[in-house]
């Protein structure tokens, strides 16, 4: 129903000089969608208040509502061209009046309210439309969207997810914010969160883990208490980058969470030794950034000092879990075998403070444009590791943009993991068999044929010399016959 509208919006953005990348497309679509969503939300709340015979106090004042400046209507319900701003007047209004007004909500609202989220979002956004005529076209298209029914919200969330996926596939920067949803869903099915759990992602990006966790739990809601918990207490995130924060917040809103608990902050700036019990979570689901380098002052917040961002996040996640809590974290597969002091110390801490019960080895190409192989670590905090179950995922094809990971690829892993079943691609390793000096966790499938040992350079050179000698003898004989 709304798919063509989204395509038309992309066409408008493609022609707009201020928007040059898929990230720009998502960012500009996000603030337009948010304001339209807010207008529909206000209209629904006004109707509910009227039916309940109670006063209604709108969030936005009259002059800054979508229905006043974005899509004013005449008596027939059509766009009122006499009142609708366009061209330079529209750009001037948005940049000089609308955005400053919306940004001001952060300073005059309480945290954890939708008003505060408005201020947070627009403090991080910039209007990149340079043509008021293009912006008018985009406003008219977005005005065709409706956030009234659950079916409409579901369709819009699907379309927005598709836009985020496209952004993730567009290049390295977009890929930072996108984790393949089939992998996320499989991780959630293994962890099995409940409607009493507090779930956390400290590097939430586009909030894929939190949105999928919401969908998983929403299907299990049985009471108003469950619904209230899911809306207000269940899902928590932090995100450092401004664009990702905006996209994640919008994504959660489209999935049905009115005031997402996402904090715009650098998670790693918090000293992990200062985390208190009240701040801990039941479940951690995350895919922290790969390959980042953190400054020395950030490293001081962690017992194990390292510039590797993902290793700092893993320390943060372990300490953010309560005793008995469950974690599922994506990390580069080199974590399993790196011999530097930080890698060895972190593996030792993970094995001793948590039960690392599962290691999922993902194939090359799982993450578009990332160029790294990854594993997923599944662990429970509070007891040391005794046995690790490994699973090597083999989808039977090369993964890529036109052939991405799908839910069917993950089905065998989820089924086998439930009982730690052994097979050609799954096996177990006793923790006491690991090298106590390195705690090496390298994925070595005992069921796969052993690869032929590589020859040493000296052996290869000897072979070349032998072949050269034989060739010389053959040439000498040929010359004798001539």
UniProtKB/TrEMBL annotation:
Enzyme Commission number(s) of this protein: 2.1.1.72
Domain DNA methylase adenine-specific residue range list: 153-450
InterPro entries per UniProt: D12N6_MeTrfase_N, DNA_Adenine_Mtase, DNA_methylase_A-5, DNA_methylase_N6_adenine_CS, SAM-dependent_MTases_sf, T1MK-like_N_sf
Gene3D superfamilies hit by this protein: 1.20.1260.30, Vaccinia Virus protein VP39 (3.40.50.150)
Entry's Gene Ontology BP terms: methylation
Signal peptide coordinates: none
Pfam families, A to Z: HsdM_N, N6_Mtase
Protein name, as recorded: site-specific DNA-methyltransferase (adenine-specific)
